[in-house]
Specification:
It is built from 26 helices and 18 strands. The protein is α+β, with helices and mostly antiparallel strands. It folds into 3 domains: 2-44, no CATH class; 75-264, Biosynthetic peptidoglycan transglycosylase-like (Penicillin binding protein transpeptidase fold, Orthogonal Bundle); 341-607, Beta-lactamase, CATH 3.40.710.10. β14 and β15 form a beta hairpin. α2 (14-44) packs across α6 (145-161), α10 runs antiparallel to α11 (245-253) and α16 (368-376) crosses α18. This is PBP1A family penicillin-binding protein. Residues 328-576 form the Penicillin-binding protein transpeptidase domain. InterPro entries: Beta-lactam/transpept-like, Glyco_trans_51, Glycosyltr_51/Transpeptidase, Lysozyme-like_dom_sf, PBP_transglycosylase, PCN-bd_Tpept.
C-alpha cells in the first residue's frame, strides 16, 4: 500500500497527485470497511425473523371465531398462498431487480445519494425490498445516518443467511397498507373482504400501490389517487412483459368490489368466551397479554359454534322483556371439561364483566346435590325419611336458626330424601347438614371442584356462600361423568405462525374422586325435579318446564332473593344458567324468576338435536326397585304412584307399601252384570231421582 502511494507521490501535478492518492485511500478504506462489515455480519449470525402477528382463535370445527390484536391487524401468509399477480405487481413497483441484487441496488443508491447531497437532506429513497424488510423488523422510520448504517448491517445479514423467497414472504407479511393493516393478508381482508390468494390482477395492482403512501393512495381516502397509481403499476407490468395489453385494459376497467364498513368491523363470535381463552393462554404460555395478542398464535378452542348460537338465541328470546337483568350461562362437556358455549352477559359492548367466571353469587338450593352426596356416603339412601315442618335449630353458640320452606309450605310428616330433593325442602337439608356437620359439607364441596371460600354454617346447605357459575357447572360435570375430576378449559391446541404445535391439551386417565355408585344414585335422584310422581305438599321444582323436555335430564334449581339458578345435565352436556341483577336487586317478578329454567330447557332441547339418547351408566353393585315415593316402601302393583329408584345392593327397603288402589272392581262387575228384570219406576220415583 505504501509502495503504491510512494509511486503516485512522484506525480508533479499537485492537484492530480492528491486526487489519485485520495482515490486510492478511499477505495482501500471502502474495501476494509466492506470486509469488516461482512465479517461482523457473518459472526452476528442470522437475525430473528419473528414479528408481531394477530393471534387467531378457532372453534371445534376449525372456523375462525376471533382474533387478538392491539391497534394493528397482522397475519402471516406463506408466499405460495399469495396471489402471483400481487407478487409481480409488488416487485414491479418496489424492487424490479430483487432476485438479482445482494440487498442493495447501487444504481438507485447513487442516484438517491446525489439527490440527497444536492438538496442537503434525505428526501430521496432507494430502498430495496430487503432494506425495507430490515427496517420493518428492527428499526424505526426516522431518516438519520445512524439508522441507515444499522439498516445496511441488517440487510446484509438477511441476504447472507436467508433465501430470496423467505425475505420476500417476510416483507409482504409486514409492510404497512394503512388503516392499521400490516401485511398483505390483513390488507386483502380489510379492503376486499377476501384472502390474499384470491386477489385479481386489478385488486393486486391497487394494493401494491398503497405502501408508497398509505394515506394518499388508500381507495377509502382518495379513490382517484388509488386508481391512478393502479394504472401506473399495470402499465409498468405490461412494459416488462408480465401482462398483456388486454390484461391491462380489462384490469383498469374492472369494477372494484371494495369491502363495506360493516364487513370491515365484524363482531367476534362469543366475545366472553374469547376473554377466557386469552386468560388461559396467558397461563399456558407464561407471557403477558400484549405479547400474546401479537404473537401470531393459532389457538384451537373447545367452542361449539352451533351450541353458542343456540345459547345466545335462547337468552335473547327468553329475556327480551327484561332490560337490566343479567345472565351468566355455561355449557360443558362432562367427560373432558371442555367449554362448549359461554355467555357472560347480555351485551359485551356495554359490559365486558364476565358473570360466568368473575361474578360470585349465592347458588341457593342448587348447592344441595353436594350435601346429598355427603349424605349418601354417610348411610343415607333415597328413601331415608326426615320430618318436614317448621323447626328451630339451637346451635352450639346458643343462637337459634329457623329456616323456612318456599312460600311457607311444609309436609308436616316425614318425607324421603328423593322427595326432599325434588321439592327442595329446606328443613330436610338443614337437618342433614347439622347431622353430618357443616365442615363435612365444605370438604365435600371441594371434591366437586368448588374452590371459593365456604362458610361452615348450617345455612350452607341452602347455598348461602357465594360461588361462580363455572364452579357449579364443573361440580355438576363430576356428577354427570361418574365422579371423574374434570376442570373447565377452553384450549385444545396452540401452534405458532408456521403451524408448529407448541401446546396440546392432554386428558390423562384419572381415578374417580367421588364414589361411582353413590354418584350414579345422586344423578338419578336429580332427575326427580322433573318427575311429578314425587309431588307432595307442593309440585316438584321442575314441573313448569317438564313438558318441554323430550329426554331424561338430571338437574337442580336454586333461588335466593337476588339470584335464580338452573343447572342440569345429560350424559353429553352439562349446562348452568344464572340470572339476576348486578347490583343485587331483588328478583320480584314471577316471570323473571323463571328465566334461568326457561333458558336452560330451551338450550338443552335444541343442543341435543341429532345426538342419540343415552342413559346414565349404572355401576355394578347398584340395583333398581319400584318405590312408593310417599312412604319410601317397596311398591306393589296396587300402590300408585310408583317411581324407579336406585340403591347400593343391600340397602334397598324391605317393607312394602300398604296403601291400595281405589276399588273399582265392584262397580265394573255391576256394570257388566247380566241384565236382570227391573221394576219400572213411576213418575214420582223418577222425579225424586232427578231432584236427588
Amino acid at each position: 500500500m505504501l509502495k503504491t502511494l510512494n509511486k503516485y507521490g512522484n506525480i508533479k501535478n499537485k492537484a492530480l497527485r492528491w486526487t489519485v492518492i485520495g482515490t486510492i485511500l478511499l477505495v482501500f478504506i471502502s474495501i476494509v470497511a466492506m470486509v469488516s462489515v461482512l465479517t461482523v455480519s457473518y459472526f452476528l449470525g442470522p437475525p430473528p425473523l419473528k414479528n408481531d402477528q394477530n393471534t387467531i382463535y378457532y372453534s371445534q370445527s376449525g372456523k375462525v371465531i376471533g382474533e387478538e390484536h392491539g391497534m394493528e391487524n397482522r397475519y402471516w401468509t406463506d408466499l405460495e398462498d399469495i396471489s402471483p399477480s400481487l407478487i409481480q405487481a409488488t416487485l414491479t413497483t418496489e424492487d424490479r431487480d430483487f432476485y438479482q441484487h445482494f440487498g442493495f441496488d447501487f444504481t438507485r443508491i447513487l442516484s438517491a445519494a446525489f439527490q440527497d447531497l444536492t438538496s442537503m437532506s434525505m428526501v430521496q429513497g432507494a430502498s430495496t425490498i430487503t432494506q425495507q424488510y430490515a427496517r420493518n423488523l428492527y428499526l424505526s422510520q426516522e431518516k438519520t445516518w445512524t439508522r441507515k448504517f444499522k439498516e445496511a448491517i441488517y440487510t446484509i445479514r438477511l441476504e447472507m443467511f436467508y433465501d430470496k423467497d423467505t425475505i420476500l414472504e417476510g416483507y409482504l407479511n409486514t409492510i404497512y397498507y394503512g388503516h392499521g393493516s400490516y401485511g398483505i393478508e390483513a390488507a386483502s381482508r380489510y379492503f376486499f373482504n377476501k384472502s390474499a390468494n384470491a386477489l385479481t390482477l386489478a385488486e393486486s395492482a391497487l394494493l401494491a400501490g398503497i405502501p408508497k403512501g398509505p394515506s394518499y393512495y388508500s381507495p377509502f381516502r382518495d379513490y382517484e389517487n388509488a386508481k391512478e397509481r393502479q394504472a401506473q403499476i399495470l402499465a409498468a407490468m405490461e412494459e416488462r412483459g408480465q401482462i398483456t395489453e388486454q390484461d391491462k385494459y380489462l384490469a383498469t376497467r374492472e369494477k372494484l368490489a371494495l369491502s363495506k364498513q360493516k364487513e370491515r368491523k365484524k363482531i367476534a363470535v362469543a366475545p366472553y368466551f374469547q376473554d377466557v381463552v386469552l386468560e388461559e393462554l396467558k397461563n399456558i404460555l407464561d407471557e403477558d397479554i400484549e405479547t400474546i395478542r401479537s404473537g401470531g398464535y393459532q389457538v384451537y378452542t373447545t367452542l361449539n359454534r352451533d351450541k353458542q348460537r343456540i345459547l345466545e338465541q335462547q337468552i335473547q328470546k327468553k329475556m327480551k322483556s327484561s332490560a337490566t337483568m343479567q345472565v351468566g350461562a355455561l355449557a360443558m362437556n362432562p367427560k373432558t371439561g371442555g367449554i362448549l358455549s359461554l355467555v357472560g352477559g347480555r351485551n359485551y359492548e356495554k359490559s365486558q364483566f364476565n358473570r360466568v367466571v368473575q361474578a360470585k353469587r349465592m347458588p341457593g338450593s342448587s348447592f344441595k346435590p353436594f350435601l346429598y352426596y355427603a349424605a349418601l356416603t354417610s348411610g343415607y339412601t333415597p328413601t331415608t325419611t326426615l320430618m318436614s315442618k317448621p323447626t328451630n335449630f339451637k346451635l352450639a353458640n346458643g343462637q337459634v336458626y329457623q329456616p323456612s320452606n318456599y312460600n311457607g309450605y311444609y309436609a308436616y310428616e316425614p318425607i324421603t330424601l328423593a322427595q326432599a330433593l325434588a321439592l327442595s325442602d329446606n328443613i330436610y337439608a338443614v337437618k342433614t347438614n347439622l347431622y353430618l356437620s357443616p365442615d363435612r359439607l365444605v370438604k365435600t364441596a371441594k371434591k366437586f371442584g368448588i374452590d371459593s371460600k365456604l362458610q361452615p354454617v348450617p345455612s350452607l346447605a341452602l347455598g348461602t356462600s357465594s360461588v361462580s357459575v363455572e364452579e357449579m357447572v364443573t361440580g355438576y360435570s363430576r356428577i354427570a361423568n361418574g365422579g371423574i375430576p374434570v376442570d373447565a378449559y377452553t384450549i385444545e391446541k396452540i401452534t405458532d405462525i408456521k403451524g408448529n404445535v407448541i401446546y396440546e391439551k392432554e386428558l390423562p386417565e384419572k381415578d374417580p374422586v367421588l364414589d361411582p355408585k353413590q354418584t350414579f344414585i345422586l344423578s338419578q335422584l336429580m332427575t326427580g325435579m322433573f318427575d311429578e310422581s314425587l309431588n307432595g305438599y307442593m309440585r316438584v321444582t321442575g314441573a313448569s318446564i317438564a313438558d318441554q323436555l323430550t329426554r331424561t335430564y338430571a338437574g337442580k334449581s336454586g333461588t335466593t332473593d337476588t339470584d335464580s339458578w338452573m343447572i342440569g345435565f345429560s350424559p353429553d352436556i352439562v349446562t348452568g344458567v344464572w340470572t339476576g341483577y348486578d347490583q343485587n336487586k331483588p328478583i320480584e317478578k314471577t316471570q323473571e324468576k323463571q328465566y334461568a329454567k326457561e333458558i336452560w330447557a330451551g338450550f338443552m332441547e335444541e343442543a341435543h338435536e341429532g345426538i342419540p339418547t343415552k342413559q346414565f351408566k349404572k355401576p355394578d353393585g347398584v340395583i333398581s326397585v319400584l318405590i312408593d315415593p310417599k312412604t319410601g316402601d317397596l311398591a306393589t302393583r296396587n300402590c300408585e304412584p310408583q317411581r324407579l329408584m336406585y340403591f347400593v345392593e343391600g340397602t334397598q327397603p324391605t317393607s312394602y307399601c300398604t296403601e291400595q288402589k281405589p276399588k273399582e272392581q265392584d262397580k265394573s262387575k255391576e256394570e257388566n252384570a247380566p241384565n236382570k228384570s227391573k221394576k219400572k219406576k213411576g213418575f214420582w220415583e223418577l222425579l225424586k231421582d232427578m231432584l236427588s
